[in-house]
Amino acid sequence: MTRFGTVLFDCDSTLSTIEGIDELAREYRDQIVPLTELAMRGEVTLESVYGRRLAIIRPSREDVERVGRMYVETLVAGAREVVRALHEAGVAVHVISGGLRPAVLHAARALGIPDGRVHAVDVYFDDAGRYAGFDEASPLARQGGKAELVESLGDLPRPSMLVGDGATDLEAKPRVDRFVAFAGVEARPHVVAAADAVVRAPSLLPVLALALGEADHYPVATRDLIVAGRVLLGEPSSLPRDSATP
C-alpha cells in the first residue's frame, strides 16, 4: 500500500462531529440548516448561501469562539491519535475548511496542527466584537474553492490525500491523488459514490491505515493504530479501489 506525504482534512463532520455554521445558527436553525444541507449535497452553489447564512446569523466574536470550543469538545474518535501518528511519520497535515478560521483554529491547535497549515475563511468584528463581515474573496466561500486552495498550496509532498464528507470536498478530488469520503458522521451518497475510498466507521483510525500503508515500518504504538484502523475498514466498500500509487 502507498504511504502518503500529505493528508488534508475537512473540519466539520470530519475532524469534528458538528457543523459549525449550524451551531452558530441555533436561533435560526429552520432557515440555516436546510441551506447547509443543500450546499453539502451540491444542490446549490456554496457562494449562493455562504454570505446569506452569515448575514442572517451575524455571529459575534464570542459566538465564533464558542463554536471553536465545541469543535474541540466534539473531535471525532481517533482524531488526536491519527494526527499525532501522521506527524510522527513525517506526513504533512493540513485542514481545509469552509468554516470560520478563528473557530477552526481551536480544533487544529488541539490536534497540534500548525496555524500555517489551517486554511479557512477569515471573519471580521468591530471593536465591540460584533460581526462586521467575512473574507468574500476567500476561495473557500465559493463553489470549487477547495480545489483552488489545494492548487494554490503548490508542491505538497506526494502522494496527497483529502479526507472530507461534503460536495465541496469532492470538488477537490482532481487536485489530490486520493479522495477519501468520511461517512462516519454524515454519509452523503453522491460523495461516497465518487470517492476513491470510504470510511464508514465513526472514527478516523481508518484514515491512518489508508495513509501510512504497511504497519511493519512504524513504532509499535503506530502499528497498533494502523491495525485497529484496518479492522474498522472491514467492509469491502471501505477499502481503496486500487492499491497502486495514484
What does this structure look like?
It is built from eleven helices and eight strands. Helix 10 packs across helix 11. Residues 235-239 and 241-246 have low confidence and may be disordered. The protein has a six-stranded parallel sheet, sandwiched between helices. Strands 4-5 form a two-stranded antiparallel sheet. The longest helix has 13 residues, at 61-73. The chain has one domain (6-233): 3-Layer(aba) Sandwich (Rossmann fold), CATH 3.40.50. Helices cover 39% and strands 15% of the residues. A hairpin with a 5-residue loop joins strand 4 (123-125) and strand 5. The chain starts with 5 loop residues before the first strand and ends in a 14-residue tail after the last helix.
Give the CATH superfamily: HAD superfamily/HAD-like
Span from first to last CA?
11 Å
Order of helices and strands: EHHHHHEHEEEHEHEHEHH
CATH architecture: 3-Layer(aba) Sandwich
Please, how many domains? 1
Seen as an oligomer or otherwise, the chain set is single chain
| Strands side by side in the biggest sheet | 3-2-1-6-7-8
Report the sheet with the most strands, covering strand number, pairing sense and barrel closure: 6 strands, parallel
Q: Any idea of the CATH class? A: Alpha Beta
Q: For the residues shown, what is the average pLDDT?
A: 92
Count of individual helical segments = 11
- The CATH topology corresponds to Rossmann fold
| Structural category | alpha/beta
Alpha carbon gyration radius: 17 Å
Helix content: 25-40%
Number-wise, the strands total: 8
